[in-house]
Structures are given as structure tokens and as C-alpha cells.
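Design review, sub-item: ligand-bound model
Attendees: FS, YL, KQ
YL presented the inputs for the pyridoxal-5'-phosphate complex:
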Amino acid sequence: MCFNSAQILRKMTEGDIKYGLKVVLSKIQAACSKRSSELQDVTPRLVAVSKTKPANLLVAAYEEGQRHFGENYVQELEEKSRSPIILTNCADIKWHFIGHLQSNKVNKVLCLPNIYMIETVDSQKLASTINKNWEKYRQSDSKLKIMLQVNTSNEEEKSGISPSEVVDVAKFVLNDCNNLELAGLMTIGKFGYDLSNGPNPDFICLKKCREDLCQKLGIDWKNVELSMGMSDDFEHAIELGSTNVRVGSSIFGARAKP
Ligand SMILES: *Cc1c(COP(=O)(O)O)cnc(C)c1O
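KQ shared the predicted structure:
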């Protein structure tokens, strides 16, 4: 995606965020009504991806009723989730970690206030490390929700387990990770896919992974979420059955390139 410098430099206000959020929520509603009948009773969750954005803008979204927020850098999530402005104004915030998580940083994420879900578990080893460590940090005996990140586009630079490994890793989580709840599957997918070529193959692939998983392990597909869709394609993803869309720039404005 390309933004001109004026868009990058324009400073977003709290009002802009509230407006952007409303627009995204109404587009989600519209996309829901286009789904096939078997998908009608699922309401997709909006995760507002707030990376690089200042805490006051998150508070604006929270005041509009937004509860789920996503961050993809450990340090940034640490700073935001512990910042006084978030702790005082957003008591019920639910954080999703959506970036690459190295094993040696697991504890830094698990100890954070209001950590809700890790969407990017990309190996059996990482699942095992999170499982072992969650006991130390959890408040009650609650399980930590995780998703398995699948590299549906088979790109070398992308993290994620390959589609052929999904059943085995899911089985490991279900059988050997008592402290984890397998919430679903997640993909990022190829950037810039042109929808005029038909349904996004990454989304079709993730759906197929769920089908395999549910069939082989005897699970109801309604209990396995699909996290797919970002600013450019969340409506399309919802039409294909996404239950969790991760939307950043359409709510908070363009991000400056790092
Ligand atoms: C940044 C990010 C998003 C949101 O991207 P937008 O195009 O700004 O909506 C979603 N998912 C992940 C994993 C991301 O890193």
C-alpha cells in the first residue's frame, strides 16, 4: 500500500479515530450480511491494531466501546499495557499479541496486564514454552488463548507453521498444553493480492486447514476461529468466514515507515 507524505504527516485526532472506528464497524456489519447462511450466527471480532500509535488514540477508541487491541512488538506492548493512561482509562482492555514472538521474550508478554490472546504461535516449541510459563503469571486457573499462525502463502520471510503441520501442532496443544486454549488459526497472507482474481488463496487455505483439523481431530468447526483480514481486505475475509479481523490503518490512520 502507498500513502503520500501528507497522509503520513497528518496528525490524527481523537475525533478521527472515533469516526474511523465507526466506519470500520459499519463495514463489518455490511460484510456479515453478505455471508452464506451457515456463517450468519458468528459475529467477527474487531482487533484494533494500534502499533506505532500513541495511547491517547487508543483511549479514544476504547471510549467508543472498542475492547480488543493488537500490538506486534513486545516492547511497545509492554509500554502501552503498563502506561498509566491505559491502566486508568481502559480497565477492561483485551490485548492481542500479533507479532513474531521469540521464546526468550515469552515471559515479558505473559506478565503483562490484560494480555488476552497470543495469535502468533508459530511452532510447537513456542507453544510448549508459553504453556510451561503461563502457570507463573495467570491470575486464576484460566487458560491462555492462543492461535496457531499458519504461513499460508509459503513465503520464506513470513513466520508460521506450514499448512501440512497444522494438525500435528494443534494435536500437541490440545493434548500436551493444559494451560492453553486453542482459539483458532491465524494468517497474514501475501500483501497486495488483487481481489479481481477471485477469492484470496490465503484465506481459502486457512479455511481448508481448519476443515482438515476439525475432521481429523473430531472438533466442531464453530469452535475454531479464523483470524484473517486487515485494512485492505477485512470485508472480503469476513465474507469468507473470518471471525477475527485485525485492522490498523483504517482506524488509526497511516503509519510512517519505520
Ligand atoms: C500491522 C498489522 C495489521 C494491521 O494492518 P493494517 O493494514 O494497518 O490494517 C494486522 N495484522 C498484523 C499481524 C499486523 O502486523
